[in-house]
Structures are given as structure tokens and as C-alpha cells.
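My main concern about presentation is that the manuscript never shows what a single data entry looks like. An entry of this sort, consisting of the sequence and the corresponding C-alpha cells, reads as follows:
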Amino acid sequence: MSVAMVVSDGTRYFLWGNGKAWAAPLNDDCLSFDESKAFHWIPGDFREAIWIHKRNGLYYASWSENDARDPEYCVKYAARSAARGASRVR
């Protein structure tokens, strides 16, 4: 699953990943991005489906952990004050 998000400064990010979460600011055409600006992180035991939204001044990232057929499957989330940076997994 790949999605796009828009941060408060108007930057559009493309989000994707499987085993590692990736993000990259989209170009003006909203169809491509500069690979040199892509960054990644591994939140918890990230599997796939990274999603980020902003609420009350905090950015929340949520994702799937483990395979959906695994008894240990779950959805986790983390919060941070900026679109990029350290976050606290919950």
C-alpha cells in the first residue's frame, strides 16, 4: 500500500514500504520524486502500510506489524511533533 500525505508547509510526500518505511517529497507533477531526497526508518517491527496524519499539532504514523494471517498481527502507531524526526512508538 502506498499513499501520499501533505504536511502543513504544503509539501506532498509519497509513503511506501515493506519491512522498511520510506518517504519522499513528490515533485510538482505529483507522479514522481527525486530518489536522492527519499528517506527511510524502521518503526517497531514494521511490516507495511505506513500512514501519517496530523492532529492537534502532532504527526501520527501508523503501520502494520507481522503478516495479517499471523496471530501476532497488530497495528502500531507513533507520535512526533514534526513530519520527520524522532518518535515514540505506542
Observations:
- The chain has no helices and eight strands.
- Residues 3-89 form one domain.
